[in-house]
Design goal:
Shape: elongated
Number of helices: 3
Helix content: 10-25%
Largest sheet: 5 strands, parallel
Order of helices and strands: EEEEEEEEEEEHEHEHE
Strand content: 15-25%
Distance between the termini: 53 Å
Length: 191
C-alpha cells in the first residue's frame, strides 16, 4: 500500500484486518483513525512527522518490534498498540500530552520506555491502599495523586512525609481547606 502525499487523514478501519507487513505514513497525514491499521501483520511502521493523533486501537494486534512516535504527536488513544507483543521499546516525544489508558496493554516484550527530560510522572494512587503506594515509594516514585478528600488525608498521615501530593478531580469548595495544607497541586476545583 502506498499512501499518497495528498492524504491528510487516515480514517477509522481504513486498513483493518489485512496482511500488511509494513507501512510508510507520509508527512501530509495529521491523524490516524480508530483501528486504522489494527489486526495486520505489521512489523514496521514509519509515522510521518505531521501526525498529531494516533486514535484508539490504531495499531492494535500487530507484530511491531519498534515504533517511533513523531515529535508532532500530541495524543495516543486507548489500546492504540494493544497486543503488539513484539514491541520492545518506545520513545515518548516531548510534545505528547496524552497517553490514554491501556495504550500499550499486552505489549509483553516491552522492556524500555524513554520519557524525555522535563516530563514528571504523577502516579494516580486513588483507590489503592497505602501499602501499594508504599511499594511504589520504595521503587523511587515520589509524586502521587488522590481524588477523595477523606482517603487523601488518611494516606498523607500514613505515608512518608517527603511525598509530593496532588489532588485531582472535583473538589467541593467546603473541602478545599482540608486539602490545601497537604497538596502541592490541586488540578481542579468544583463549586
Amino acid at each position: 500500500v502506498i499512501i499518497p502525499d495528498s492524504v491528510t487523514s487516515i480514517g477509522n478501519h481504513a486498513f483493518v484486518s489485512n496482511q500488511l507487513t509494513s507501512i510508510n505514513i507520509p508527512n501530509s497525514v495529521t491523524s490516524i483513525g480508530y483501528e486504522a491499521f489494527a489486526h495486520n501483520q505489521l512489523t514496521s511502521v514509519t509515522i510521518g512527522n505531521s501526525v498529531t493523533t494516533i486514535d484508539d486501537y490504531a495499531f492494535a494486534h500487530n507484530q511491531l518490534t519498534s515504533v517511533a512516535i513523531p515529535n508532532s504527536a500530541t495524543s495516543i488513544g486507548m489500546y492504540a498498540f494493544k497486543g503488539c507483543s513484539g514491541l520492545t521499546n518506545i520513545d515518548i516525544p516531548l510534545g505528547l500530552t496524552s497517553i490514554d489508558h491501556h495504550a500499550f496493554e499486552d505489549c509483553s516484550s516491552l522492556a524500555s520506555i524513554t520519557i524525555p527530560d522535563g516530563v514528571t510522572l504523577v502516579a494516580v494512587s486513588k483507590f489503592h491502599p497505602a501499602e501499594m503506594i508504599a511499594e511504589a515509594y520504595q521503587c523511587g516514585q515520589r509524586i502521587f495523586a488522590e481524588s477523595r478528600e477523606n482517603e487523601f488525608r488518611a494516606k498523607v498521615e500514613q505515608l512518608p512525609q517527603d511525598i509530593e501530593w496532588h489532588f485531582i478531580g472535583h473538589l467541593q469548595t467546603n473541602k478545599v481547606k482540608q486539602v490545601v495544607p497537604y497538596a502541592s497541586m490541586i488540578q481542579s476545583i468544583d463549586s
